[in-house]
Amino acid sequence: MVSPIRFLQGIESLTQNPRMIFLEIGAGRDLTLMTRRVFQDSLQQKSLSLIPPENWDDTDDHYFLHQLGRIWLHGHNLKWKKLYARNQNRKIPLPTYSFQHDSYWPETNVYQTINEIKTNLNTEKRIKITDWGFTFSWERTGITNTELSTVSRRTILIFMDDCGVGCHFDNLLSGKGYDVIKIFKGLDFSPRSKNEFQINPKLADDYNRLLSHLTQFNLLPQKILHLWNITQQSNNNRWDTFVESQYDGYFSMQFIARAIGKQNLTSQFSFFVFNNNLQTINDNERIRLEKSTLLGAIKVIPKEYPNISCRNIDISNSYLTKFNEKDYCRLLHELELENIHQEIAYRGSFRWVKKVIKIPLPKSDLPLIKPGATYLLTGGLGGMGLVLARFIAEHAPVKLLLTGRSFFPLKKDWDPWVQKQGADDSISQKILKLKEIENLGSTVVTIQADCADLNAMETIIKKYRIGIDVIKGIIHAAGIADGKFIQRRDDQDCLKIMLPKIKGLYVLNQLFSFSKLDFVVICSSIASVIPSVGQIAYCAANIFFDNFAVENALGKHVNVKSISWDMWKDVGMGVRTLEELKEQRVAGLFIKHREAAIKKGSLIRKQLKFSNER
Ligand SMILES: NC(=O)c1ccc[n+]([C@@H]2O[C@H](COP(=O)([O-])OP(=O)(O)OC[C@H]3O[C@@H](n4cnc5c(N)ncnc54)[C@H](OP(=O)(O)O)[C@@H]3O)[C@@H](O)[C@H]2O)c1
Predict the structure, then answer these.
(1) Rounded to the nearest whole angstrom, what is the distance from the C-alpha of residue 393 to the centroid of ligand 1?
(2) Which atom, in ligand 1's list, is nearest to the CA of 500?
(3) Which residues lie across from 276 on neighbouring strands?
(4) Burial letters for 502-529: b for 16+ Cβ neighbours within 10 Å, e otherwise?
(5) 36, 175, 359, 370: least CB-packed within 10 angstroms?
(6) Rounded to the nearest 5 degrees, what angle is found at the Cα of 20, between the Cα atoms of 19 and 23?
(7) 523 lines ligand 1 (CB under 6 A)
(8) What is the per-residue pLDDT for 1?
């Protein structure tokens, strides 16, 4: 060695290139570490060794590839073909999300959007209450076609019913060139033959297995006929049978959508969901209430999965028993019609579509509020509950029973509570509102009870002696907010949202004779008409409410009203949700959608929809 190595000067001269990478090829990491000392923080230089350190607990190959990956990440092109020259490699699709550079947030500023919505709500011209009313109506769209077109080898999937409709469809469609694949209910996923499969409706994974199988054998359909909701049993209006029936309807649709999403299937799927006795065109038809939730799935799934379209086709039992071949063809002709309407009904030779129409609301002078009467408000300590309680108290001195699940101090502790916790505390604020109500001359009783718990509700009825002879009216305002994409939710997530609303209503219906009350007001939401993404269960539960009122009106209990509220301005879960969204950007999609929905819904906004005004 005749002269010094001058390592430092050598590296300094090489680091003139701001994106230089130094590779140490040999055992040890001394040169790598020495080189790093020369790097300037502002420059994007790297020093890597290609031999794994002692503590590397994976294979050498893995380390080598890992380092190559770092070089690539640093922006250097590698000759991948040379690297894999001796291997039989092939490209596979990676899960898209974390590698995709598409932004999923709305282009608009989320906070600005929230503020705009709020400003709109504040400055909007007040519409007269009598103009707030909208309801559903059916429009006849003429006599339908009974000729089916012939196709060449198109796969179609039928979820087979027990009433024989699927068998007729199978014969007709096979005769027209379709390859029909039939899905039956069974204990687990298994093929019964080349084009017959069974799945367990309660197992979400069976839908995945079915779709994987169909994909593997190139049998994925474009059209799917879901007939599991064409049924014969009668409705007993109980929560346990309600839950059981969801697996043939609402959950079945949710599980399929989730399986399509899970398998990244991006081709177009058109669902034709047939059922009986979900819609009423004539006064003599009754609704199978437990099927109502299916409409929630049909409305929300296409919003969360742009490649899925859904249509609901209702047939009535009385026509079903008299069906002939022409009638089956008429139903199948639906497959050839444009997807404009989501809710369709067939009665005889006629096709009907559901529409929202404006109805004038009568001016109310509240004759129903009687001085000295007792009224029960479930969710009475919530945002809307407290406003409605005060509203009643402003019209007459009454007794108000307000229920909720959370702890609430006894009346004797109200003043000490406010003193100790301060007026900003959330319970203190409620106490102050309750005191205002009492100052109007009414008596308030707060009750801690889950309205969906029959035993708990029976106990409070005994404890407070509030039998049907005492209660004159009920407002059902118990509910919890929803917000989860279908892809991330399971059946239990949905039942949690449905519980206070649907089971709560079943319990109230069981404990009180609704026909003997002056009024039963059910707090539904505009989400039943214009649902948002992330709200499939909320939408479904509110549609159940609306149908409950219609069903009661058909049974002549016209005192039962379901009001599909739009978002309340200052109180309640809607305002809280917006506040939460402000905190966490997470629901950008929700906001964007909500904004669009509000624009679209200017027609139907802030309305009272008395579902039984027919
Ligand atoms: N606010 C709106 O803009 C709006 C719009 C359309 C429809 N709605 C509907 O109107 C109803 C009331 O809404 P809100 O805004 O007043 O909501 P909120 O402020 O969250 O009040 C709901 C109340 O329900 C209670 N609750 C929940 N589960 C219950 C159960 N199982 N048993 C008894 N009480 C229960 C909650 O208290 P605990 O947690 O203590 O039980 C809460 O106090 C909801 O059904 C909602 O879907 C609201």
Answers:
(1) 20
(2) 31
(3) 315
(4) bbbbbbbbebbebeebebbbbbbbbbbb
(5) 175
(6) 140
(7) yes
(8) 62
How far is ligand 1, taken at its centre, from the CA of residue 437, in Å? 19
Cβ 453 under 6 angstroms from ligand 1:
no
110-122+371-603 matches 138-357 in fold: yes
User: For residue range 244-276, what is the model confidence (pLDDT) as tens digits?
Assistant: 999 999 999 999 999 999 998 989 999 999 999
Class level of CATH domain 138-357: alpha beta
Give yes or no for residue 381 CB within 6 A of ligand 1: yes
Q: Are the C-beta atoms of 197 and 189 separated by less than 8 Å?
A: yes
Mean pLDDT of 91-97: 66
- CB distance 447 to ligand 1 below 6 Å: no
CA neighbor of 408 nearest in space, from 380, 427, 433:
427
Ligand 1 center from residue 568 Cα (angstroms): 12
Q: Which two tokens stand for residue 405?
A: 């699940």
Out of 402, 573, 576, 580, give the residue to mutate to test ligand 1, the one with the largest number of ligand atoms within 8 Å of its CB. Answer: 573
pLDDT at 591 over 70: no
Residue 607 beta carbon below 6 angstroms from any ligand 1 atom:
no
In sequence order, the β-bridge partners of residue 226 are 159, 273
- Distance in Å, CA 386 to ligand 1 centroid: 10
Question: Taking the domains of the chain in order of start, what are their residue ranges?
Answer: 7-92, 110-122+371-603, 138-357
Query: CATH second-level architecture of 110-122+371-603?
Result: 3-Layer(aba) Sandwich (3.40)
Share of the chain above pLDDT 70, in %: 85
Q: Report residue 422 as tokens.
A: 């301060």
**Could you tell me if 522 and 557 are in contact, meaning their C-beta atoms sit under 8 angstroms apart?**
no
pLDDT-derived band of residue 446, with 50, 70 and 90 as boundaries? very high
Which pLDDT band, with edges at 50, 70 and 90, does 558 fall under? confident
Distance 43 CA to ligand 1 centre (A): 56
Find the 546 Cα to ligand 1 centroid distance in Å.
17
Residue for token digits 């999403």? 261
